[in-house]
């Protein structure tokens, strides 16, 4: 036993670690040690052979599996150990080992330190010798494969026992050592040359730029005031990039020239920063070339959204009308007014009925539409004594804003098509 493996006995004569022993006999080495399916050859006299073996040992990769398979392996091991291993150090060390292996989707790990398991064993901190004995016992009971560390700075090797790996497929690695997470070839060989198929869009994207002619950039640079024309080559290129950026946003060359040609200070030390500052403060948003295209796209987008909303409302109305009668729909409106405590008239009874049906389905999701409406109306319909004798006003009798009382218009975006004026609509950020 070497000094690094334990306390030396005073009566033991230690063999020198270098050179040859007396008599010129070759240095002795220990025989290969086999534990389970792992074989380790230990040498204490040939430092070069030990370093070579350690280098090859570090080049091996850890065995990886899928995370779903790792959870399955964990359940198998814990289920098998439930009636065999009593509560105590061995049970905690086994849980820590599974957290270290299955928690990272590994079947084995050849760089284990005892202190790693001490921190994973829970609030109680076991002695390293207790951890080592528990690992040896788990190896003996065929729950894990364990090779203890030998020598100063060495690592232990722990692996799941093969009897728990039925049906578990180990992930392969490519020539570079990366884990291959799919069994079939990739759909494209290079992301740079073969882009993945993009999801189809319902329509063209909102325009964000316009085409810029290089002559327009040169025109602005040539007609700019003297401090901007006399820039060095690199700063002139940066100014041209700024000009191209704002031309792309839809601004015209004459507008950029007017911004640059405004009253200049007596001394301009940094013309590029001055140009950037003026562009940022004066050319805000989209220019006159881009703004009309964006407004047209916005109108088409709102029209498409309104068409989809109207079609959805028609389908919902058909489903509600098929499941209810005229009397039930009148009761639904009364229950809706009582449920929402509405004092203003309902602008659109059809939209209100659809909204009441939606509230009924949310309150009773496990029933059909007709049953949900019946139960919801029975729950929120007021008693006959609470119902006012005054007739319910129609949509034409009220066009005042529900917020400020000014004249407004029904809003299709609201569930009840409530009347809201333009000022309140903008103020609320709608």
Based on DSSP secondary structure assignment, what is the total number of beta strands? 7
Major β-sheet annotation: 3 strands, antiparallel
CATH level 1 name of the domain at 31-182: Mainly Alpha
* Poorly predicted segments: 1-49, 51-58, 389-397
The neighbouring-strand order within the major sheet is 3-5-4
SSE topology string? EEHHHEHHEEHHHHHHHHHEEH
How much beta, percentage-wise? 5-15%
CATH topology of the domain at 31-182: Arc Repressor Mutant, subunit A
**Coarse morphology:** flat
State the helix count: 15
* Radius of gyration of CA atoms, rounded to a whole number: 40 Å
Quote the distance from N terminus to C terminus: 81 Å
CATH architecture of the domain at 31-182: Orthogonal Bundle
Overall average pLDDT: 78
* Share of residues in helices: 40-55%
Structural classification: mainly alpha
Q: In summary, what is this structure?
A:
By secondary structure, the protein is mainly α. Helix content is 45%, strand content 6%.
């Amino acid at each position: 036993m070497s000094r690094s493996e334990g306390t030396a006995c005073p009566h033991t004569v230690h063999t020198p670690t270098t050179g040859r022993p007396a008599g010129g006999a070759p240095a002795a080495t220990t025989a290969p040690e086999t534990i389970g399916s792992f074989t380790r050859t230990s040498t204490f006299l040939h430092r070069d052979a030990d370093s070579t073996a350690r280098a090859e040992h570090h080049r091996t990769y850890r065995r990886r599996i899928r995370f779903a398979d790792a959870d399955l392996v964990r359940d198998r091991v814990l289920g098998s150990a439930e009636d065999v291993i009593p509560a105590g150090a061995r049970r905690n060390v086994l849980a820590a080992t599974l957290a270290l292996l299955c928690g990272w989707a590994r079947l084995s790990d050849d760089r284990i330190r005892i202190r790693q398991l001490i921190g994973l064993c829970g609030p109680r901190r076991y002695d390293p010798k207790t951890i080592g004995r528990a690992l040896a016992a788990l190896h003996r009971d065929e729950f894990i494969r364990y090779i203890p560390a030998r020598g100063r700075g060495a690592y232990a090797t722990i692996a799941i026992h093969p009897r728990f790996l039925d049906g578990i497929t180990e992930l392969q690695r490519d020539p570079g050592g990366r884990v291959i997470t799919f069994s079939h070839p990739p759909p494209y060989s290079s992301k740079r040359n073969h882009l993945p198929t993009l999801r189809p869009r319902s329509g063209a994207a909102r325009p964000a730029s316009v085409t810029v002619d290089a002559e327009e950039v040169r025109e602005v640079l040539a007609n700019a005031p003297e401090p901007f024309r006399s820039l060095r080559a690199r700063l002139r290129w940066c100014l041209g990039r700024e000009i191209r950026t704002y031309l792309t946003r839809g601004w015209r060359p004459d507008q950029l020239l007017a911004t640059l040609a405004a009253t200049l200070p007596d001394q301009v030390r940094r013309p590029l920063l001055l140009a950037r500052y003026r562009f940022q403060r004066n050319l805000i948003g989209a220019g006159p070339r881009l703004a009309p295209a964006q407004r047209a796209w916005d109108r088409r987008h709102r029209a498409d959204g309104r068409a989809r909303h109207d079609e959805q409302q028609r389908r919902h109305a058909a489903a509600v009308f098929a499941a209810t009668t005229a009397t039930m729909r009148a009761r639904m409106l009364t229950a809706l007014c009582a449920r929402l405590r509405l004092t203003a008239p309902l602008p659109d009874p059809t939209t209100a009925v659809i909204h009441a049906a939606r509230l009924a389905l949310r309150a009773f999701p496990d029933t059909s539409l007709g049953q949900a409406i019946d139960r919801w109306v029975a729950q929120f319909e007021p008693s006959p004594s609470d119902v006012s004798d005054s007739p319910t006003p129609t949509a034409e009798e009220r066009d005042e804003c529900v917020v400020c009382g000014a004249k407004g218009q029904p809003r299709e975006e609201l569930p009840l098509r409530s009347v809201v004026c333009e000022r309140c609509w903008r103020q609320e950020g709608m």
